[in-house]
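As the next step, I wrote out a protein sequence along with its fold in token form, included below for the reader:
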Amino acid sequence: MKRVKVLFGQRRFQILASMAVLLLAAGVVVASGASFTSQSANAANVFSAGTLAMTNTPNGFTANVSHMVPADSYTGTITIQNTGTVQGHFYLQPVTITGDTLGFAQDLQLLITDGATQVYSGSLSGLVQEDLGTWPADASHTYTFKVTFPDGNAAAPITIGDGADNAFMGATTTADFNWTTVSVSNGSLPNNN
């Protein structure tokens, strides 16, 4: 009988402990259900980088002028376009001269214009980097190149055998014109709030 009382006493303790745990859990559930919550999403925010590209038409302005004599000139045009989606700052890089014989590139005179605006005037070999400004997307400019073989006798009366430009007979030169653009920041983009 004593043993039954001990078991019943332990059993009562286990039942009371279990009930206390259940009451505590119920209190937590009831207490946590009394708060308010809210949630809002700002979905589908898209950030993308622009592109910077250019084209030139005709492709690369290739001039192959043969048999020039003093006072001859050659004129050609090239159109450069910003085909990217962002604005860019454009430059005409220094000309690269190769295959120059008899210093012909120094004697030839180059005039580059953008409409009525003069971009460069001087010797073919003297072209340095020219700043062409900032262009928005889709902008284009047409440049006119005029190369002249100056007449060394133009200032003096011509006499037979004078030949001030004879030193350049048979001379050749090759010039590469390179165009460069660098993206320009739009600054802080406007808020749409």
The domain at 68-154+163-183 is CATH 2.60.120 (Jelly Rolls). The helical segments are 2-32, 104-107.
